[in-house]
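Hey,

The postdoc asked me to send both predictions to you directly instead of through the lab channel. I've kept everything plain text so nothing gets mangled by the mail client. Protein one:
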Amino acid sequence: MSEFPEPGPRRPADELEPLGERFERLSREAQAHTFRAATTPTPPPPVALSRVRPAEDSSELPALSAEPRKARHHANAKVEKDERRFDTTALHFDTHGRLMSHADYIAHCEKYDYAWRSIKMGDRILDVGCGTDAPLMRAINFVQSQATKVMHRAGGCYVGVDLNKLKVTNINWAQLLGEVDMTSDDGYEEALYAIPGNWNEQMKAPADELRGYTLVVCLEVIEHMDAPDGKSLLKNMRDLLSDDGRIILSTPVYDGKGQARNHIHEYYIDELRELIKSVGLKVTKRMGTFTAEPQLKAWLKENRPDWLKLYLEAREFHSAGYMSGVLAPMVPDISRNNVWVLERDEQADTAP
């Protein structure tokens, strides 16, 4: 006996559907399916959220700060009044953007890498809005040569602050301070006295001996609060800087059409530039981090057709998300997100 079962009887040939008739039947079914899909009602357009909190000191803010920001959201999302003062979204270390080359998350990685590469020997680093996973601290600790630069014996340190609760770190050159509001006087003091030497044996150092931070990193934070709080944040970061310190700030560019649902106030480029100047800071460098492919290709066609040819060749392999970040630093005005490098402007006439 065979170990395989005997095949069942075949259908008689006169019972089989002719091949041509089967092809025509399948074609009709496919067309009917396409028609049903094409006539499916489209969801209603998104309804813009209106801002609720008034800008109490709007007279001191750029004029554009008073313009309500529209929120992008799914058509079936429940639209409610936005009562938030802050948004506490955090970029998680191992879950965002793992399976696709999304431009936004590629840019997140590059911003942290830029901040990481900007570290100098003996830097005292304040990471504002460090996130619950503190990716910048992890990146520094991952490479010994970078960690050496911020060790206490080199005169450096790392202090991460965030509105969210943070776990204690066992890295000896680092501190993580959770539930800190960096727009407030209390937040300013917490950050100031976290610097080694500014607080010794339960006593504050004399004012003339206090040291500031040489590098303040604030990535994707200022858009998660309203404009008056954004101004307070910039003021505090400026006051925490040493004379030769610098700030690396990144934030989306508002396009006048809509902002992310978890953002409270995105800034136009000129609006943020004016706000930076008003608190006694100056811009030393501004770079784009990613842009939309249609705008980028249009800019290249008009301004650098030689680059457009290279772009299209590289685009055969790389995704639009990846390529939009490669050239974005050179076209910040059409980028969806900018990195701003700031320093103190001692000549500025700032309001109290």
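Protein two:
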Amino acid sequence: MVKGRSANDRRYIEIGLKIAYYRKLNGLTQEQLAEKINLSSRYISKVETPSIIQPISLKTLFVIADFFRIPPHKFLEFY
């Protein structure tokens, strides 16, 4: 992780990386995922980019988890 980041910043980065992982696992582009869950591809890009801290709401996280049919807590497990 990037030095100088707060614990919450690192968590947002990890959430974004997990979203990218599940998106790629399902063979989707950022644009395809964004279209399917009614968000902009720019927002998905920001969430997934580790150099950008993009907070994500629980509502959005639940929508993404439901789309991938995984429990929301999978995005919130930090090691």
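Summary for protein two, as requested: The chain has one domain: 7-76.

Thanks,
C.
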